[in-house]
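Researcher: Predict the fold of tRNA binding domain containing protein.
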Amino acid sequence: MASTSAPLIDAINGFAALKNVEAIASYIESNKQAEAFLGATPEDKKEIEKWLAFARKELGDTSGGFEKAKHFGKLGKLHKHLVPRVFLVSNNLTAADVAVYAALLPLVPGLDSHTQFSFAGAARWFDFIQHHPAVRSAGVPIVELDLNYPLNPKPPKKEEKPAAQAKPAAEQAAEKKPEGAAEAGKAKAPRQPKQPKGQAAAAAAGPAVPDIVRLDIRVGKITSVKKHPSADSLYLEEIDLGEEKVRQVVSGLVNFIPIEQMQDARVICLCNLKPAKMRGIESQAMVLCASNADHTQVELIKPPEGAKIGERIFFGEGYEGEPDKELNPKKKIFEGLKPDLFINADLVASYRDKEKQKELVFLTSAGPCKATSLSGGSIS
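Model: C-alpha coordinates for tRNA binding domain containing protein follow.
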Protein backbone atom coordinates (compact mmCIF):
# COMPACT_ATOMS: atom_id res chain seq x y z
CA MET A 1 0.00 0.00 0.00
CA ALA A 2 1.38 3.37 -1.03
CA SER A 3 2.25 5.76 1.76
CA THR A 4 -0.30 8.29 0.45
CA SER A 5 -3.01 5.84 1.60
CA ALA A 6 -1.97 6.16 5.26
CA PRO A 7 -4.11 9.27 6.01
CA LEU A 8 -7.10 7.60 4.38
CA ILE A 9 -6.68 4.48 6.54
CA ASP A 10 -6.08 6.48 9.72
CA ALA A 11 -9.31 8.43 9.22
CA ILE A 12 -11.54 5.34 9.10
CA ASN A 13 -9.55 2.78 11.08
CA GLY A 14 -10.37 1.46 14.55
CA PHE A 15 -13.99 0.34 14.13
CA ALA A 16 -14.35 -3.33 15.04
CA ALA A 17 -17.25 -3.91 12.64
CA LEU A 18 -15.40 -2.54 9.62
CA LYS A 19 -12.68 -4.83 8.36
CA ASN A 20 -10.41 -4.36 5.36
CA VAL A 21 -10.26 -0.56 5.48
CA GLU A 22 -7.24 -0.88 3.19
CA ALA A 23 -9.60 -1.90 0.36
CA ILE A 24 -11.66 1.25 0.86
CA ALA A 25 -8.53 3.41 0.91
CA SER A 26 -7.29 1.70 -2.24
CA TYR A 27 -10.61 2.35 -4.01
CA ILE A 28 -10.62 6.02 -3.00
CA GLU A 29 -7.02 6.48 -4.10
CA SER A 30 -7.38 4.63 -7.41
CA ASN A 31 -10.41 6.75 -8.30
CA LYS A 32 -8.50 9.95 -7.45
CA GLN A 33 -10.96 10.91 -4.69
CA ALA A 34 -8.47 11.15 -1.80
CA GLU A 35 -8.53 14.94 -1.49
CA ALA A 36 -12.34 15.10 -1.44
CA PHE A 37 -12.53 12.10 0.91
CA LEU A 38 -10.46 13.91 3.55
CA GLY A 39 -11.97 17.34 2.85
CA ALA A 40 -11.37 19.49 -0.21
CA THR A 41 -11.71 22.77 1.73
CA PRO A 42 -10.87 23.90 5.27
CA GLU A 43 -14.60 24.02 6.02
CA ASP A 44 -15.07 20.44 4.82
CA LYS A 45 -12.09 19.27 6.89
CA LYS A 46 -13.60 20.88 9.99
CA GLU A 47 -16.98 19.24 9.37
CA ILE A 48 -15.36 15.84 8.78
CA GLU A 49 -13.47 16.11 12.07
CA LYS A 50 -16.73 16.89 13.85
CA TRP A 51 -18.40 13.75 12.49
CA LEU A 52 -15.35 11.60 13.18
CA ALA A 53 -15.62 12.73 16.82
CA PHE A 54 -19.33 11.90 16.73
CA ALA A 55 -18.54 8.38 15.51
CA ARG A 56 -15.72 7.69 17.95
CA LYS A 57 -16.85 9.58 21.07
CA GLU A 58 -20.58 10.35 21.01
CA LEU A 59 -21.62 6.96 19.65
CA GLY A 60 -18.69 5.34 21.44
CA ASP A 61 -18.52 1.57 21.83
CA THR A 62 -21.50 0.20 19.91
CA SER A 63 -20.52 -3.47 20.05
CA GLY A 64 -23.36 -4.18 22.48
CA GLY A 65 -25.98 -3.22 19.93
CA PHE A 66 -28.80 -0.69 20.09
CA GLU A 67 -29.66 0.76 23.51
CA LYS A 68 -32.57 3.18 23.38
CA ALA A 69 -31.49 5.32 26.32
CA LYS A 70 -27.97 5.65 24.96
CA HIS A 71 -28.47 5.88 21.21
CA PHE A 72 -31.97 7.28 20.50
CA GLY A 73 -30.94 10.93 20.74
CA LYS A 74 -27.78 10.33 18.70
CA LEU A 75 -29.80 8.79 15.87
CA GLY A 76 -32.17 11.74 16.04
CA LYS A 77 -29.27 14.16 15.59
CA LEU A 78 -27.99 12.19 12.61
CA HIS A 79 -31.45 11.94 11.06
CA LYS A 80 -32.11 15.68 11.35
CA HIS A 81 -28.79 16.49 9.67
CA LEU A 82 -29.34 14.02 6.83
CA VAL A 83 -32.96 14.69 5.87
CA PRO A 84 -31.98 17.26 3.19
CA ARG A 85 -28.58 15.69 2.38
CA VAL A 86 -27.10 12.71 0.55
CA PHE A 87 -23.71 12.74 2.33
CA LEU A 88 -22.72 14.00 5.78
CA VAL A 89 -20.29 16.58 4.39
CA SER A 90 -20.13 18.24 0.99
CA ASN A 91 -21.52 16.41 -2.03
CA ASN A 92 -19.35 13.31 -2.11
CA LEU A 93 -18.32 10.38 0.06
CA THR A 94 -15.95 11.43 2.84
CA ALA A 95 -14.24 9.80 5.81
CA ALA A 96 -17.14 11.12 7.89
CA ASP A 97 -19.63 8.90 6.04
CA VAL A 98 -17.48 5.77 6.35
CA ALA A 99 -16.65 6.32 10.02
CA VAL A 100 -20.24 6.98 11.15
CA TYR A 101 -21.47 4.07 8.99
CA ALA A 102 -18.85 1.81 10.66
CA ALA A 103 -19.90 2.95 14.14
CA LEU A 104 -23.55 2.22 13.34
CA LEU A 105 -22.93 -1.23 11.88
CA PRO A 106 -23.53 -3.07 15.18
CA LEU A 107 -26.62 -0.95 15.98
CA VAL A 108 -28.70 -0.96 12.82
CA PRO A 109 -29.59 -4.68 12.73
CA GLY A 110 -31.24 -4.23 16.14
CA LEU A 111 -33.60 -1.47 15.01
CA ASP A 112 -37.20 -2.51 14.40
CA SER A 113 -39.11 -1.17 11.40
CA HIS A 114 -40.78 1.59 13.39
CA THR A 115 -37.46 2.91 14.72
CA GLN A 116 -35.86 2.72 11.27
CA PHE A 117 -38.69 4.79 9.85
CA SER A 118 -38.60 7.26 12.75
CA PHE A 119 -35.04 8.02 11.64
CA ALA A 120 -35.73 7.63 7.91
CA GLY A 121 -33.11 10.23 6.94
CA ALA A 122 -30.38 8.31 8.74
CA ALA A 123 -31.69 4.92 7.55
CA ARG A 124 -31.82 6.04 3.92
CA TRP A 125 -28.29 7.44 4.20
CA PHE A 126 -26.97 4.24 5.87
CA ASP A 127 -28.46 2.13 3.08
CA PHE A 128 -26.92 4.38 0.42
CA ILE A 129 -23.47 4.29 2.07
CA GLN A 130 -23.49 0.51 2.53
CA HIS A 131 -24.12 0.13 -1.21
CA HIS A 132 -21.48 2.68 -2.25
CA PRO A 133 -18.74 1.03 -4.39
CA ALA A 134 -16.00 2.17 -2.00
CA VAL A 135 -17.69 0.50 0.98
CA ARG A 136 -18.65 -2.58 -1.04
CA SER A 137 -14.94 -3.07 -1.81
CA ALA A 138 -14.42 -3.95 1.88
CA GLY A 139 -16.82 -6.88 1.60
CA VAL A 140 -18.99 -5.94 4.59
CA PRO A 141 -22.33 -7.85 4.58
CA ILE A 142 -25.36 -5.77 3.62
CA VAL A 143 -27.76 -4.95 6.47
CA GLU A 144 -31.35 -5.50 5.36
CA LEU A 145 -33.50 -2.45 6.06
CA ASP A 146 -37.26 -1.96 5.93
CA LEU A 147 -37.68 1.52 4.49
CA ASN A 148 -41.33 1.08 3.48
CA TYR A 149 -42.88 1.25 6.95
CA PRO A 150 -46.19 3.15 6.51
CA LEU A 151 -46.74 6.62 7.91
CA ASN A 152 -49.47 6.76 10.58
CA PRO A 153 -50.19 3.03 10.50
CA LYS A 154 -53.82 2.27 11.27
CA PRO A 155 -54.68 -0.26 13.96
CA PRO A 156 -56.22 -3.47 12.65
CA LYS A 157 -59.99 -3.36 12.37
CA LYS A 158 -61.97 -5.21 14.99
CA GLU A 159 -63.47 -8.40 13.72
CA GLU A 160 -67.11 -7.74 13.00
CA LYS A 161 -69.75 -10.30 13.70
CA PRO A 162 -71.45 -11.47 10.53
CA ALA A 163 -74.87 -9.93 10.13
CA ALA A 164 -77.80 -12.21 10.56
CA GLN A 165 -78.64 -13.74 7.23
CA ALA A 166 -81.87 -12.36 5.88
CA LYS A 167 -84.43 -14.81 4.68
CA PRO A 168 -84.92 -14.99 0.94
CA ALA A 169 -87.70 -12.76 -0.31
CA ALA A 170 -89.71 -15.75 -1.46
CA GLU A 171 -89.72 -17.26 2.04
CA GLN A 172 -90.85 -13.97 3.57
CA ALA A 173 -93.66 -13.74 1.05
CA ALA A 174 -94.66 -17.35 1.72
CA GLU A 175 -94.89 -16.69 5.47
CA LYS A 176 -97.26 -13.82 4.84
CA LYS A 177 -99.52 -15.86 2.53
CA PRO A 178 -102.70 -17.33 3.95
CA GLU A 179 -102.93 -21.09 4.58
CA GLY A 180 -103.34 -23.13 1.46
CA ALA A 181 -101.56 -20.66 -0.75
CA ALA A 182 -99.13 -22.21 -3.18
CA GLU A 183 -95.50 -22.16 -1.98
CA ALA A 184 -93.46 -19.52 -3.75
CA GLY A 185 -90.41 -20.71 -5.68
CA LYS A 186 -86.96 -20.06 -4.39
CA ALA A 187 -85.58 -16.53 -4.91
CA LYS A 188 -82.79 -16.16 -7.43
CA ALA A 189 -79.35 -15.39 -6.05
CA PRO A 190 -78.40 -11.75 -6.61
CA ARG A 191 -76.19 -11.18 -9.62
CA GLN A 192 -72.56 -10.56 -8.67
CA PRO A 193 -71.06 -7.31 -10.03
CA LYS A 194 -68.65 -7.84 -12.87
CA GLN A 195 -64.97 -7.28 -12.15
CA PRO A 196 -63.70 -4.18 -13.99
CA LYS A 197 -62.07 -5.03 -17.29
CA GLY A 198 -58.37 -5.77 -16.86
CA GLN A 199 -58.50 -5.77 -13.05
CA ALA A 200 -57.89 -9.51 -12.80
CA ALA A 201 -54.85 -9.26 -15.08
CA ALA A 202 -53.49 -6.32 -13.07
CA ALA A 203 -53.88 -8.24 -9.82
CA ALA A 204 -52.11 -11.25 -11.27
CA ALA A 205 -49.23 -9.04 -12.43
CA GLY A 206 -48.27 -8.16 -8.83
CA PRO A 207 -47.56 -4.74 -7.29
CA ALA A 208 -47.40 -1.83 -9.70
CA VAL A 209 -44.00 -0.33 -10.55
CA PRO A 210 -43.79 3.28 -9.25
CA ASP A 211 -44.16 5.74 -12.12
CA ILE A 212 -40.74 7.29 -11.42
CA VAL A 213 -39.16 3.88 -12.10
CA ARG A 214 -40.85 3.75 -15.49
CA LEU A 215 -38.61 6.60 -16.65
CA ASP A 216 -35.36 5.56 -18.34
CA ILE A 217 -33.04 8.37 -17.19
CA ARG A 218 -29.38 7.85 -18.08
CA VAL A 219 -26.00 9.55 -17.83
CA GLY A 220 -24.80 10.93 -21.15
CA LYS A 221 -22.17 13.14 -22.74
CA ILE A 222 -22.78 15.68 -25.48
CA THR A 223 -20.24 14.83 -28.18
CA SER A 224 -21.45 17.34 -30.76
CA VAL A 225 -23.68 20.43 -30.66
CA LYS A 226 -24.74 23.02 -33.22
CA LYS A 227 -27.63 25.34 -33.94
CA HIS A 228 -30.75 23.79 -35.44
CA PRO A 229 -30.78 24.69 -39.15
CA SER A 230 -34.45 25.76 -39.02
CA ALA A 231 -34.88 27.22 -35.53
CA ASP A 232 -32.78 29.91 -33.82
CA SER A 233 -33.75 28.84 -30.28
CA LEU A 234 -32.91 25.13 -30.68
CA TYR A 235 -29.67 23.16 -30.40
CA LEU A 236 -29.08 19.96 -32.34
CA GLU A 237 -26.90 17.61 -30.27
CA GLU A 238 -25.36 14.19 -30.56
CA ILE A 239 -25.26 12.48 -27.15
CA ASP A 240 -23.34 9.38 -26.13
CA LEU A 241 -25.62 7.34 -23.88
CA GLY A 242 -23.55 4.18 -23.75
CA GLU A 243 -25.23 2.64 -26.80
CA GLU A 244 -23.76 1.51 -30.13
CA LYS A 245 -24.76 4.79 -31.76
CA VAL A 246 -25.05 8.30 -30.39
CA ARG A 247 -28.55 9.72 -30.15
CA GLN A 248 -29.73 12.82 -31.95
CA VAL A 249 -31.41 15.25 -29.54
CA VAL A 250 -33.05 18.63 -30.08
CA SER A 251 -33.11 21.00 -27.08
CA GLY A 252 -34.55 24.48 -26.65
CA LEU A 253 -31.56 25.81 -24.72
CA VAL A 254 -29.99 28.35 -27.06
CA ASN A 255 -31.33 31.31 -25.06
CA PHE A 256 -30.12 29.91 -21.73
CA ILE A 257 -26.86 27.98 -22.10
CA PRO A 258 -23.94 29.05 -24.34
CA ILE A 259 -22.91 26.53 -26.96
CA GLU A 260 -19.42 26.33 -25.39
CA GLN A 261 -20.96 25.03 -22.16
CA MET A 262 -23.00 22.46 -24.05
CA GLN A 263 -20.06 20.94 -25.92
CA ASP A 264 -18.68 17.87 -24.06
CA ALA A 265 -21.05 18.50 -21.14
CA ARG A 266 -22.04 15.52 -19.00
CA VAL A 267 -25.82 15.45 -18.69
CA ILE A 268 -28.73 13.24 -17.71
CA CYS A 269 -31.30 12.37 -20.37
CA LEU A 270 -34.79 10.91 -20.42
CA CYS A 271 -34.32 8.18 -22.99
CA ASN A 272 -37.68 6.45 -23.41
CA LEU A 273 -39.87 9.24 -24.67
CA LYS A 274 -41.41 8.53 -28.05
CA PRO A 275 -39.13 10.13 -30.68
CA ALA A 276 -40.66 13.34 -32.03
CA LYS A 277 -39.78 15.74 -34.82
CA MET A 278 -38.90 19.28 -33.82
CA ARG A 279 -38.86 21.64 -36.79
CA GLY A 280 -38.31 18.74 -39.15
CA ILE A 281 -35.56 16.89 -37.21
CA GLU A 282 -36.23 13.86 -35.00
CA SER A 283 -35.29 14.16 -31.32
CA GLN A 284 -34.55 10.81 -29.68
CA ALA A 285 -34.25 11.85 -26.00
CA MET A 286 -34.61 14.84 -23.67
CA VAL A 287 -31.82 16.62 -21.81
CA LEU A 288 -33.09 17.21 -18.26
CA CYS A 289 -32.54 20.70 -16.87
CA ALA A 290 -33.37 22.79 -13.83
CA SER A 291 -35.28 26.05 -14.20
CA ASN A 292 -36.62 28.81 -11.95
CA ALA A 293 -40.33 29.49 -11.46
CA ASP A 294 -40.78 31.85 -14.42
CA HIS A 295 -38.39 29.87 -16.65
CA THR A 296 -36.03 32.81 -17.15
CA GLN A 297 -33.07 30.78 -15.87
CA VAL A 298 -32.23 27.27 -17.03
CA GLU A 299 -29.17 25.12 -16.31
CA LEU A 300 -28.05 21.56 -16.96
CA ILE A 301 -28.47 18.89 -14.29
CA LYS A 302 -25.12 17.13 -14.15
CA PRO A 303 -24.10 13.68 -12.92
CA PRO A 304 -21.03 13.38 -10.64
CA GLU A 305 -17.64 12.90 -12.29
CA GLY A 306 -17.37 9.22 -11.40
CA ALA A 307 -20.69 8.25 -13.00
CA LYS A 308 -20.36 6.03 -16.07
CA ILE A 309 -21.76 7.03 -19.43
CA GLY A 310 -24.94 5.07 -20.05
CA GLU A 311 -25.65 4.11 -16.43
CA ARG A 312 -29.25 4.48 -15.34
CA ILE A 313 -30.35 6.88 -12.62
CA PHE A 314 -31.87 5.09 -9.61
CA PHE A 315 -33.84 6.14 -6.54
CA GLY A 316 -32.94 3.62 -3.83
CA GLU A 317 -34.60 0.71 -2.07
CA GLY A 318 -38.26 0.14 -2.91
CA TYR A 319 -37.86 1.80 -6.30
CA GLU A 320 -36.35 -1.03 -8.31
CA GLY A 321 -37.64 -2.28 -11.64
CA GLU A 322 -37.27 -1.90 -15.37
CA PRO A 323 -38.37 1.23 -17.23
CA ASP A 324 -40.97 1.21 -19.98
CA LYS A 325 -39.42 0.45 -23.33
CA GLU A 326 -41.20 3.55 -24.62
CA LEU A 327 -43.50 5.82 -22.63
CA ASN A 328 -47.01 5.92 -24.03
CA PRO A 329 -47.59 9.61 -24.86
CA LYS A 330 -51.33 9.24 -24.29
CA LYS A 331 -50.79 8.23 -20.65
CA LYS A 332 -48.57 11.27 -19.95
CA ILE A 333 -46.42 9.51 -17.33
CA PHE A 334 -43.61 12.09 -17.37
CA GLU A 335 -46.04 15.00 -17.46
CA GLY A 336 -47.76 13.60 -14.37
CA LEU A 337 -44.47 13.35 -12.48
CA LYS A 338 -43.08 16.79 -13.40
CA PRO A 339 -44.83 18.73 -10.58
CA ASP A 340 -42.97 16.52 -8.07
CA LEU A 341 -39.52 16.80 -9.66
CA PHE A 342 -37.44 19.54 -8.07
CA ILE A 343 -33.99 20.74 -6.97
CA ASN A 344 -33.58 20.53 -3.21
CA ALA A 345 -31.76 22.91 -0.85
CA ASP A 346 -28.46 21.12 -1.55
CA LEU A 347 -28.96 21.54 -5.32
CA VAL A 348 -29.63 17.80 -5.71
CA ALA A 349 -32.17 16.65 -8.30
CA SER A 350 -35.04 15.12 -6.33
CA TYR A 351 -38.47 13.48 -6.58
CA ARG A 352 -41.30 13.87 -4.06
CA ASP A 353 -43.33 10.65 -3.74
CA LYS A 354 -46.55 11.98 -2.25
CA GLU A 355 -48.15 8.55 -1.91
CA LYS A 356 -45.32 7.20 0.29
CA GLN A 357 -44.49 10.64 1.71
CA LYS A 358 -40.83 10.34 0.75
CA GLU A 359 -38.32 12.60 -0.93
CA LEU A 360 -35.86 10.73 -3.15
CA VAL A 361 -32.77 11.92 -4.99
CA PHE A 362 -31.48 11.16 -8.49
CA LEU A 363 -28.60 8.75 -7.79
CA THR A 364 -25.73 7.23 -9.74
CA SER A 365 -23.07 4.78 -8.61
CA ALA A 366 -20.85 7.81 -7.87
CA GLY A 367 -23.42 9.90 -6.02
CA PRO A 368 -26.31 12.28 -6.74
CA CYS A 369 -27.03 14.44 -9.80
CA LYS A 370 -27.00 18.19 -9.18
CA ALA A 371 -27.88 21.58 -10.59
CA THR A 372 -25.42 24.46 -10.31
CA SER A 373 -27.39 27.19 -8.54
CA LEU A 374 -31.18 26.87 -8.89
CA SER A 375 -32.16 25.60 -5.44
CA GLY A 376 -35.91 25.07 -5.33
CA GLY A 377 -36.14 24.96 -9.11
CA SER A 378 -38.24 22.59 -11.19
CA ILE A 379 -36.99 19.84 -13.51
CA SER A 380 -37.98 19.42 -17.13
